[in-house]
Amino acid sequence: MLYLLYEWLKDGDAGRYLNFLRYPTFRIVAGFGSSLVIGMLIGPRLIERLRVAQYGVSNVREDTPESHQKKKGTPTLGGSLILLGIFFGTLLFADLTSRVVLVALLMTAGYGFTGFLDDWLKLSKKNSKGLPGRYKLVLQTVFFLISVFGLMTDWSGGVPHLLIETKLTVPFIPTRYANPELGWVYVFFAWIVVVGTSNAVNLTDGLDGLAIAPTIVAALVFGVLCYVAGTSLEIADYVTVNGARQLAGVPVHQYLGIARVEGGAELAVFCATIVGAGISFLWFNSYPASVFMGDVGSLALGGALGTVAMLSKNELVSAIIHGVFLTEILSVMIQVVSFKTTGKRVFKMAPIHHHFEKAGMSETKIVIRFWIVSVLLGAVALGSLKLR
Predict the structure, then answer these.
(1) Three-state SS for 162?
(2) 230, 264 in Cβ contact below 8 A?
(3) Quick check: is 57 in a domain?
(4) 212 lies in some domain
(5) What whole-number distance in Å separates Cα of residue 326 and Cα of residue 8?
(6) What is the dihedral of CA 355, 359, 363, 365, to 10 degrees?
(7) pTM over 0.90
(8) Cis peptide before 171 (omega within 30 of 0)
(9) How far apart are CA 262 and CA 229, in angstroms?
(10) Which domain range does residue 126 map to?
């Protein structure tokens, strides 16, 4: 809203006092700071209200190790604090006329609503079952289709046309060498990325602070990727002109060999709010947690990260960035397939963080090691830029 206010006033005398809002770098920092501050200020009071409202209700999943039962009494729905920070920062500092920002907000809100229904059913029915998985998948798919065909498709001219690039960017390889075109098949591929990421984050949210820190790292990495893909800044590089090499300014995305993303800088503002809101939540969610994220947070954050991966053309590199989440969901799939086909379990318990718990590793050690792995994977993803 502040950016739109600047756009409205920029040609008048008042506009010069808001000129700083024209710079995406300022708005990225401001989005981060505002989401962090609002979360830290509102967090204690919100958590206390959740604790009172959920008194006597167990928010511990049934399919967890016995040691988790000591966490009974810890309130859930803490993800609402994260969503508040994200929407507060984005609405204030992002360009709300940007199509990619609207898609990111819609997907985050839609997946947050799906998670809220799940959490609400758990609380109202006083069990840990919640919304059946098939209904979650239906709602996730509906919000995805609304976003893609409602906001990212041009229906004029009688023939629908996707407004998002349907070519894939391959990690470590410049787009001029590998940029496969999927056409309308891309919609199905993007659905797998978005829905898969959402459910992977949901499965990872099983230990105090386990899901939110990799989310912060992923959002930070995506913020950098979105900014360099969407900025108009140029960098000096040698180019060939009339057979002769000479130094000239080239766009950053061209220099790095990645796809140009319209609105990428605005997506970076959105990513910055995830980082800020995530840090404020981690303050309360670190061991021993004062509040659980709940599905309202995990499904929304996963949906947001998957959507950013789609919009920024980092669908494949997101497998690296989301390595922790990918490992968690794969461990569940491997466990299910193995048990149904052979009657044997590969892991002591799935997702894999419970396997390490059953093996005798402390919760804190598991969480910190997963954090370290997440940071290393984020560094690899950023390194893929230069290697292109």
Answers:
(1) strand
(2) yes
(3) no
(4) yes
(5) 44
(6) -110
(7) yes
(8) no
(9) 8
(10) 96-264+285-387
Cα–Cα dist 207/204, whole Å: 8
**To 10 degrees, the CA torsion angle through 326, 331, 336, 337?**
80
Is position 129 within any domain? yes
280: closest CA among 43, 46, 30, 28?
A: 43
Residue 160 resides in a domain: yes
Long-range contact list for 330-333, CB < 8 A, 24+ apart? 331/355, 332/203
- Give the number of domains in the chain: 1
Residue 351: cis peptide before it, omega within 30 degrees of 0: yes
Alpha carbon distance 142, 232 (integer Å):
34
Q: Are 175 and 169 in contact (CB under 8 A)?
A: yes
DSSP state at residue 238:
E
Per-residue pLDDT of the chain (388 residues; tens, 9 = 90+): 777 776 777 777 766 777 788 889 999 999 999 999 999 999 999 999 999 888 766 666 666 666 665 667 789 999 999 999 999 999 999 999 999 999 999 999 999 999 999 999 988 877 667 889 999 999 999 999 999 999 999 888 778 889 898 999 888 887 778 889 999 999 999 999 999 999 999 999 989 999 999 999 999 999 999 999 988 777 766 566 666 676 666 777 777 777 888 899 999 999 999 999 999 999 999 988 999 999 999 999 999 999 999 999 999 999 999 999 999 999 999 999 999 999 999 999 999 999 999 999 999 999 999 999 999 999 999 988 877 6
Dist. CA 233–CA 194, nearest whole Å: 29
Q: How large is the C-alpha radius of gyration of the chain?
A: 22
Helix (H, G, I), strand (E, B) or coil at 32: helix
